[in-house]
């Protein structure tokens, strides 16, 4: 055979092994998780390197592939954010309004049943975003947040329920982005929040006290559709002395019953 003859690239190029392809996919998903959990102004490459533990060259290569597929876009000269293809998968403002309307009777039933205020939040990157609230009949209402409030995902009971429903990789991406702000919420720490996520997963519902608001205790759970996808998180907040352990369980049972009665699923 003539040694000067070059074989076609299709023959000479080594095909990546299944393990290599899986590793590349995992790295790409880690970058995507970090971008989605990032602030609205986008993420710098250095920040993505720090969060994912990947080399700068690897980040640039993965970003190029994600940009080509329109899952990531250049927000400014040095910052990357979600691309148009990803934004098409994220609920629009109208869809959030529709979800708020669907959850309104759920929150009303919960508040009427327990007398305390009930809340609904959705995920907005690394934040929770309150989309609905219903005030109860008890003389002292704990209105910890209002419609439109955004705060780090996990510092409130509804947001903690949402955070705990995410994959571990997504949880870490959210925690890394929110780490600088956590201390502002009752001295919350990364270690404490990780323990709360673990306890929520084991218990099946969230419990948060004295973080977003002092002397307040709240319980929460994720809201799922029929296929099991998490749509939102709901919670009930009350004064700490009004939420002993047995009442926590009763409120959780009421929340679960109200969700199912209105066409939602609950863990």
TrEMBL record:
Sorted UniProt keywords: DNA-binding, Transcription, Transcription regulation
- A Pfam family assignment: IclR_C
Residue ranges occupied by any HTH iclR-type domain in the UniProt entry: 22-82
Q: What is this protein called?
A: IclR family transcriptional regulator
Q: Which PROSITE patterns match?
A: HTH_ICLR (PS51077), ICLR_ED (PS51078)
Task: Give the species this sequence originates from.
Answer: Comamonas testosteroni TK102
Please verify whether the record's keywords include Transmembrane: no
The Gene Ontology biological process annotation of the record reads: negative regulation of DNA-templated transcription
- Enumerate the spans annotated as IclR-ED domain: 85-267
Gene3D superfamilies of this UniProt entry? 3.30.450.40, Winged helix-like DNA-binding domain superfamily/Winged helix DNA-binding domain
SMART domains from the UniProt entry: HTH_ICLR (SM00346)
Q: Does the keyword DNA-binding apply?
A: yes
Q: What GO molecular function terms would the record report?
A: DNA binding; DNA-binding transcription factor activity
């Amino acid at each position: 055979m003539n040694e000067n003859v070059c074989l076609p690239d299709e023959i000479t190029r080594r095909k990546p092994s299944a393990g290599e392809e899986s590793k590349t996919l995992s790295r790409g998903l880690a970058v995507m998780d970090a971008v989605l959990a990032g602030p609205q102004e986008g993420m710098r490459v250095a920040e993505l390197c720090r969060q994912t533990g990947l080399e700068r060259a690897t980040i640039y290569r993965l970003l190029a592939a994600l940009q080509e597929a329109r899952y990531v876009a250049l927000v400014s000269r040095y910052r990357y954010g979600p691309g148009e293809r990803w934004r098409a998968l994220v609920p629009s403002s109208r869809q959030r309004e529709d979800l708020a309307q669907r959850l309104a009777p759920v929150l009303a039933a919960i508040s009427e049943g327990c007398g305390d205020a009930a809340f609904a939040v959705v995920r907005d990157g690394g934040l929770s975003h309150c989309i609905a609230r219903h005030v109860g009949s008890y003389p002292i209402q704990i209105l910890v947040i209002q419609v439109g409030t955004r705060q780090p995902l996990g510092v409130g009971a509804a947001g903690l329920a949402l955070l705990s429903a995410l994959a571990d990789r997504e949880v870490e991406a959210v925690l890394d982005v929110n780490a600088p702000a956590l201390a502002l919420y009752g001295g919350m720490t990364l270690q404490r929040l990780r323990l709360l996520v673990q306890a929520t997963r084991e218990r099946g519902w969230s419990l948060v006290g004295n973080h977003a608001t002092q002397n307040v205790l709240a319980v929460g759970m994720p809201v799922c559709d029929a296929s099991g996808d998490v749509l939102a998180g709901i919670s009930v907040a009350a004064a700490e002395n009004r939420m002993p352990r047995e009442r926590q369980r009763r409120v959780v049972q009421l929340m679960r019953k109200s969700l199912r009665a209105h066409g939602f699923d609950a863990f």
